[in-house]
């Protein structure tokens, strides 16, 4: 009953739609950022959105979503350009340029934020929500803006799909084909800025970076194709966005951004461990099985070649375990003379012969 | 007379700001040179997690326990990032982008949950309270010294003590890690100690400037110095001078416009960086342009035998 109430709740509907839109745009665009090794550029752009938010507030005097988006897009792009300028025209490396842009733009944002607070404008309330996100403050009109940005961005991506793909995976080849590589790269970066802007209200400028990285990193584990990766990333983005926003709305006291990010992080951990093919868990199991098989073969080989040496086999735990396993499978018995040694059964002998044959074939 | 100066609010704030800059640009210099600047971003965010956890366990808001806790958190961040990158499932940059937001999120959520008990709120996390450092003083030699100034001075001594003791090892490990390793200087361990010092500095600076502005104090003066000189020791001096200048100018500008003092100091480090970028004597943009123009007007004479 409570859930039904919740579903028909106006604010909650807004939150869910907003979170879905956020996942829908940040997942796919994050894929390009992660594949182009620009994960941290998203971090810089999102921190740099803060002065834009404040500037738009100072100019328009209201917290209108449209102007906030234009403002944050402007400063976000300016930060990306400054970063490019610093790396191209000075001897600073990318990491330093990123750190500089991130911290200085954020500092400007903080200065502007305190300036606004100093002017005691009544409608300034909620501006700080852009730091950590406050999903419950989402308005229906905000959703229209977020929705149209998502739609336009994804349509553009669909139209220039081939170009974006080629530039991402083989920029030099794209250049040799005469593609405007720089323009496409700039467009992809600008799209990351757009995704950041959509997420401002939901997760805030500080954690938006993770919303770019996490769904993409998780999706990469499940798919080897760019298309599949994009779809999965969008799905993961939506799931983490909606569940984080739901928990935040239900609990009232908790900020939305951290909850969304933690959900996404949990999905990343699960994906890293369990994804078919790439999952770490499968890797461990495979490694373990191979090790065991090899140990068995080695033991059979040794017993076949040097039957009398088997007294010394009981030294380590691993060997003892493999021995008892082989015994259970009917390859070995305790040696008939009653000592501590082992002997091959007829079945074991057959298997050992095979091992020896393959081994000697490999050697010769 | 000194007591009078210290009870005035301006001097303690400026001194703390300058000390934050000097202490953090010391470690920042090596991070900039090694190409690991973004680790300060990761560390400064994730120490929020460390600070809250240590507070929950020991109820201590500052002091040596917090510094050690921070050092461990910083180390944890870097180790987690490297472990994640070593799985080969995600790239290094994505690994950084995954680890610190997660730790930061846990920290912020815990702050939300224990909001009534903790001395720091999410506001302090971002801005710091450098404007109030003079309120929290301890008596040293009969003078009311701001606590933040004491802790920042200790961090400065620790950082420069470490750098002074291992100067040649750090220098070699930064510029030629392979050679440093063959000499048995253990560049990896040196690097980890450096990162632990970075985290401790971040915590000591945390109350004054917050998590994000710390990045500016650590990276920007060091980067500006890198644009101005080729000497390592000179980078420390320039970094410290820029920190002091930013602190003084940032304070008075902030007071004039009635804005965040820490934020304005960070912005000033950016201004000095831009100046170095444009007007630096050797690598500055203007110098390069002038040089190119001079070369074009009076090209070098080709050798006679050509």
From TrEMBL, chain A:
Ranges annotated as spanning the membrane: 12-35, 40-59, 65-86, 98-116, 143-161, 202-219, 226-247, 259-281
Classification via SUPFAM superfamilies: ABC transporter involved in vitamin B12 uptake, BtuC (SSF81345)
Native source species: Vreelandella alkaliphila
Subcellular location field: Cell membrane
Protein name: Metal ABC transporter permease
Membership in a protein family: Belongs to the ABC-3 integral membrane protein family.
Matches recorded under CDD domains: TM_ABC_iron-siderophores_like
Tagged with keyword Plastid: no
Keyword vocabulary terms for this entry: Cell membrane, Ion transport, Iron, Iron transport, Membrane, Transmembrane, Transmembrane helix, Transport
Membrane-protein topology: Multi-pass membrane protein
GO cellular component, one term: ATP-binding cassette (ABC) transporter complex
Biological processes annotated in GO: cellular response to iron ion; iron ion transport; response to zinc ion; transmembrane transport
UniProtKB/TrEMBL annotation, chain B:
Subcellular location: Cell membrane
Originating organism: Vreelandella alkaliphila
GO CC annotations on file: ATP-binding cassette (ABC) transporter complex
PANTHER family, alphabetized: ABC-TRANSPORTER METAL-BINDING PROTEIN (PTHR30477), METAL TRANSPORT SYSTEM MEMBRANE PROTEIN CT_070-RELATED (PTHR30477:SF8)
GO biological process: one example: response to zinc ion
Record InterPro entries: ABC_BtuC-like, ABC_TroCD
Membrane topology: Multi-pass membrane protein
Keyword annotations: Cell membrane, Membrane, Transmembrane, Transmembrane helix, Transport
Name of this chain's protein: Metal ABC transporter permease
Main location: membrane
Transmembrane segments: 12-32, 39-58, 64-84, 96-115, 148-167, 179-197, 203-228, 235-255, 261-285
Transmembrane recorded as keyword: yes
Top-rank taxon, per record: Bacteria
Similarity field: Belongs to the ABC-3 integral membrane protein family.
């Amino acid at each position: 009953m409570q859930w039904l109430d919740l579903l028909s709740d106006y604010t909650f509907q807004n939150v869910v739609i907003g979170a879905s839109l956020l996942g829908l745009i940040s997942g796919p665009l994050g894929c390009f950022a992660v594949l182009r090794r620009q994960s941290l550029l998203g971090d810089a752009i999102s921190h740099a959105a803060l002065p834009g938010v404040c500037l738009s507030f100072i100019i328009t005097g209201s917290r209108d979503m449209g102007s906030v988006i234009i403002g944050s897009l402007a400063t976000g792009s300016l930060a990306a350009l400054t970063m490019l300028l610093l790396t191209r025209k000075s001897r600073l490396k990318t990491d330093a340029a990123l750190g500089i842009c991130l911290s200085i733009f954020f500092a400007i944002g903080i200065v502007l934020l305190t300036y606004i607070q100093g002017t005691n404008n009544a409608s300034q309330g909620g501006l700080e929500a852009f730091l950590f996100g406050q999903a419950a403050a989402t308005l229906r009109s905000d959703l229209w803006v977020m929705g149209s940005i998502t739609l336009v961005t994804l349509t553009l991506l669909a139209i220039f799909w081939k170009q974006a793909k080629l530039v991402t995976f083989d920029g030099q080849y794209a250049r040799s084909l005469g593609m405007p590589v720089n323009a496409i790269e700039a467009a992809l970066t600008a799209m990351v800025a757009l995704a950041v802007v959509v997420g401002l209200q939901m997760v805030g400028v500080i954690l938006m970076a993770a919303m770019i990285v996490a769904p993409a990193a998780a999706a990469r584990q499940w798919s080897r194709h760019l298309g599949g990766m994009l779809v999965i990333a969008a799905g993961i983005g939506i799931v983490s966005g909606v569940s984080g926003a739901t928990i935040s709305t239900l609990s009232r006291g908790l900020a939305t951004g951290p909850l969304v990010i933690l959900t996404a992080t949990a999905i990343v951990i699960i994906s890293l461990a369990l994804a078919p093919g790439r999952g770490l868990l499968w890797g461990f199991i495979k490694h373990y099985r191979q090790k065991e098989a090899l140990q068995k073969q080695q033991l059979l080989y040794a017993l076949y070649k040097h039957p009398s040496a088997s007294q010394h086999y009981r030294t380590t735990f691993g060997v003892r375990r493999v021995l008892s396993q082989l015994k259970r499978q009917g390859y070995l018995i305790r040696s008939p003379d009653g000592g501590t040694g082992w002997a091959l059964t007829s079945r074991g002998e057959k298997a050992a012969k095979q091992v020896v044959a393959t081994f000697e074939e490999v050697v010769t | 007379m000194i007591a009078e100066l210290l009870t005035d609010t301006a001097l303690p704030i400026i001194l703390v700001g300058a000390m934050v800059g000097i202490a953090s640009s010391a470690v920042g210099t090596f991070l900039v040179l090694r190409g690991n600047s973004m680790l300060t971003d990761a560390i400064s965010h994730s120490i929020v997690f460390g600070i809250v956890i240590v507070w929950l366990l020991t109820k201590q808001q500052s002091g040596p326990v917090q510094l050690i806790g921070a050092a461990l958190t910083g180390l944890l961040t870097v180790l987690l990032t490297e472990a994640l990158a070593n799985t080969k499932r995600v790239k290094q940059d994505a690994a950084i982008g995954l680890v610190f937001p997660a730790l930061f999120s846990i920290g912020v959520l815990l702050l939300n949950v224990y909001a009534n008990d903790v001395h720091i709120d999410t506001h302090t996390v971002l801005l710091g309270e450098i404007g109030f450092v003079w309120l929290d003083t301890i008596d040293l030699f009969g003078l009311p010294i701001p606590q933040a100034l004491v802790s920042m001075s200790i961090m400065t001594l620790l950082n420069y003590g470490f750098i002074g003791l291992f100067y040649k090892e750090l220098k070699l490990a930064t510029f030629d890690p392979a050679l440093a390793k063959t000499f048995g200087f253990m560049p990896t361990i040196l690097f980890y100690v450096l990162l632990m010092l970075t985290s401790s500095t971040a915590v000591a600076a945390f109350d004054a400037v917050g998590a994000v502005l710390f990045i500016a104090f650590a990276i920007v003066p060091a980067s500006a110095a890198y644009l101005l000189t080729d000497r390592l020791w000179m980078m420390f001096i320039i970094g410290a001078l820029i920190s002091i200048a930013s602190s003084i100018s940032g304070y008075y500008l902030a007071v004039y416009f009635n804005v965040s003092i820490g934020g304005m100091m960070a912005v000033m480090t950016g201004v000095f960086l831009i100046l170095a970028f444009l007007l630096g004597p050797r690598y500055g943009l203007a110098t390069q342009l002038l040089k190119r123009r001079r070369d074009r007007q009076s090209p070098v004479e080709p050798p006679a035998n050509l």
